[in-house]
Write a structure and sequence with these properties.
Two copies of one chain form a homodimer.
Chain A (H helix, E strand, L loop, with lengths): L5 H7 L4 E2 L2 E2 H12 L4 H17 L5 E5 L5 H8 L9 E3 L6 E6 L4 E7 L1 H4 L3 H7 L10 H11 L4 E8 L11 E3 L6 E3 L8 H5 L2 E3 L2
Parallel strand pairs in A: 3-4
Antiparallel strand pairs in A: 1-2, 3-5, 5-6, 6-7, 8-9
Helix pairs in contact in A: 3-4
């Protein structure tokens, strides 16, 4: 079997529109932001596309992703929601799922990689479950499977968001007596770093 | 006092280069990604600029930010590090600080908004500490103060990163008996959502 190139894949579906752009632009935007064509971001972009269509045009939608891997970038590339503007919340649950919802009504749609459906696209299933070494599944083969499968490997249900929505209040700010930096009073008498959670040590 | 427009600010410093671009492009890139010209992202971009200069050119740098607000976007706009590609780690400490470090040697620089220094730029101090209502501090005045202050309100020290670096292993994946979705075995007998941490409820 000869392996398709990305260009072959793009030429195959000239009319495909994902997140408002052609497949070529969709893939280019992923590479530009994420740094490389990660299968997880391509899948994620298709999930965003489905959620956006369900939520409908003209709705100001906020987002939740249930993993730190890939999905935050799919949302940040294809919606106005970013980690830093607060419209995207990132849960570290390692579940390949995302929700877009109307920030006014809190009604939205959750889309996830459905393992039972993914079994019918074994490359996707094996890749996601870590059942095949990277060298045995070339990126082009996996991407071609993902593009062909499109929404057939996802499930999507309407949901009402019950927490994590809205702007988080900043709360009372204190100055840490150890490091002199501002931190939320809620954390206690010292900031998190001075309480021992630091990730760095000084060097000269 | 007449308020300066963004254009006035840009025209004032035609030779200023921040994160490899003119002030006009720097501000335009922030607005395009973040959705609006947030003072926190402008400050964050100046912090990234200082950290990048210290780390030096040609170094593959990973990043840590110590707040979910604004700083994740400053890093994502001006470095190759994103939330979804794993090169940016986001701590929810609400500290206005970031670290860029060489991913090979783990040596880098931490830059933070230094409150004592910020006192000399009262608009920045008052804004950050929440001491002035938004309506009393026009965005243009605050931005002008930030651009003029530049690095004078930051401190920067060399650090060695001691945790949070590198790729996190995916670990064993299980299928949740309740929802049928994949999740990390470490979380227990059910996934986080089925354990009661869910943020949504189904609707018809």
């Amino acid at each position: 079997m000869s392996t398709k190139t990305i260009k072959d894949m793009v030429d195959q579906v000239p009319d495909l529109v994902i997140c408002g752009r052609s497949l070529a632009d969709f893939l280019a935007d992923i590479e530009a932001f994420h740094g490389f064509l990660a299968p997880g971001v391509v899948l994620g972009g298709l999930m965003v596309d489905q959620a956006q269509e369900k939520v409908g045009p003209g709705v100001e939608a906020d987002a939740v992703v249930e993993t730190c891997r890939c999905l935050p970038d799919a949302v940040q590339i294809f919606t106005p929601c970013t980690a830093g503007n607060g419209w995207l919340k990132i849960l570290d649950w390692q579940k390949f799922a995302l929700t877009l919802y109307d920030k006014g009504t809190l009604l939205g749609y959750r889309v996830w990689l459905d393992l039972e459906k993914a079994r019918r696209a074994p490359h996707i299933y094996n890749w996601y479950m870590g059942l095949v070494p990277k060298k045995d599944l070339p990126l082009e083969v996996l991407l071609d499977t993902i593009i062909k499968a499109r929404r057939s490997v996802f499930s999507c249900v309407p949901v009402r968001v019950t927490r994590l929505y809205g702007k988080r209040e900043k709360g009372e700010i204190k100055v840490c007596p150890s490091c002199g930096e501002a931190y939320p009073a809620l954390q206690g008498d010292q900031c998190a770093a001075c309480q021992g959670q630091g990730y760095y040590e000084p060097r000269e």
